[in-house]
Specification:
Structural class: mainly alpha
Order of helices and strands: EEHHHHHHHEEEHEHEH
Mean pLDDT: 86
Shape: elongated
Strand order of the largest sheet: 5-6-7
Strand content: 5-15%
Number of helices: 10
Helix content: 40-55%
Low-confidence stretches: none
Length: about 290
């Protein structure tokens, strides 16, 4: 109410400053079963639409209040529920017929206004114009048309947070940004016509499986085993490189020996990429995530 920020302190002493309805409700310790449903309702609205969390709770509370009056007048709860369901259908039909417009007909200006309205109550509200522009551009960039249906998979927008600069220095990158660094400083910083390999295993020196013992009686043989381990690693890298790969993204680690081979092949290697990021990159580039070299 009145658009002021609320300061919430939990048991541990963590402080949250917000005026977003869903966030406030999430931080409350609610015992009452009906109140819990309202909290879940706000969270669901936040996930599905991203705005109108407070409005949803107020409408639901008002409906409950009116329902209580009817129950007091000896109307059976089942009849009230069926009445609400009927009115819900009618309301949806009315909205569909009279209050909906195609996004293409609205134009960019209207989308910007929608974004500004949604951002006005958030912490970045003062920079609403700047972020609204960015949001609309990002949403249009991920537009997917399948036949007649148009989808906007919002999860396809990756948001990276970094400390140390002002929020106005945020920028939209056309492509996909990862919160990772190169495996080695000697690797190329930019690769044109990249062929990306998405690997779901570590590129490290070949080790024996758990529980495997090798008993060596000759010292020279031990040296041979170590050499063979290094050769296996070299062969694995060579196999990946022979496919024409020049960018390697892996969810595991890349040890120094593998980095050396990658630097020699003038390829870019990035380790510890999170699985969701790797899946999105694989989807965007048409690659397949490999869990082994088999």
């Amino acid at each position: 109410p009145v658009g002021l920020d609320k300061m919430l302190v939990d048991d541990v002493g963590d402080v949250t400053i917000t005026n977003d309805g869903a966030t406030i409700l999430k931080l409350l310790d609610v015992e009452h079963p009906a109140a819990k449903v309202l909290v879940e309702l706000a969270q669901l609205q936040d996930e599905e639409v991203g705005d109108g969390t407070t409005s949803v709770v107020l409408i639901a509370a008002e409906l409950l209040k009116n329902a209580e009056e009817l129950v007091k007048q000896k109307v059976h709860p089942t009849s009230i529920i069926s009445g609400y369901r009927l009115s819900c259908k009618e309301a949806c039909a009315y909205i569909k017929d009279h209050l909906t417009m195609n996004v293409d007909d609205l134009g960019r200006e209207c989308l910007l206004n929608c974004a500004k309205t949604s951002l006005s109550s958030k912490i970045i509200g003062p920079d609403g114009d700047f972020f609204a522009n960015m949001v609309v551009e990002a949403a249009n960039a991920i537009k997917v048309t399948e036949g007649k249906t148009v989808r906007y998979p919002i999860k396809a927008v990756n948001i990276l947070k970094a400390h140390g600069r002002s929020s106005r220095e945020s920028r939209l990158i056309q492509g996909y940004a990862l919160n990772c660094i190169l495996g080695s400083q000697q690797m190329p910083k930019r690769v044109a016509n990249a062929k990306v390999a998405c690997l779901d295993f570590s590129l490290q020196k070949a080790k024996m499986k758990m529980g495997v013992q090798v008993l060596v009686s000759d010292v020279d043989k031990l040296d041979g085993i170590r050499k063979r381990e290094a050769d296996i690693t070299k062969e694995r890298i060579a196999k990946i490189m022979s496919a024409g790969t020049n960018v390697i993204l892996t969810t595991g680690g890349i040890d120094d020996l593998c980095l050396k081979y990658l630097v020699e092949a003038n390829a870019m290697g990035i380790r510890r990429v999170t699985k969701p990021d790797l899946r999105r990159i694989a989807k965007a580039t048409g690659a397949t995530m490999l869990s082994s070299l088999a």
